[in-house]
Small CPxCG-related zinc finger protein (Halomarina salina), 60 residues
Amino acid sequence: MTDERRSPSGGWREVYSEMAVSTDHEPDSLLCPTCGDDCPRLRTATYWCRTHGAWRVAAC
Ligand SMILES: [Zn+2]
């Protein structure tokens, strides 16, 4: 009846798009500034350390 069924969850697409864009600005992972462990990127400037949790890169 409507086209709403074609896009059941548009929210994740916005998040995915944001992440895709952020890859152009930040690397996929960085070393934790505290323990030096490899931290995958969560968001534009936010990384995840399994020991220290989420941490952010200081903006220039
Ligand atoms: Zn750490």
Residues 11-22 form the longest helix (12 residues).
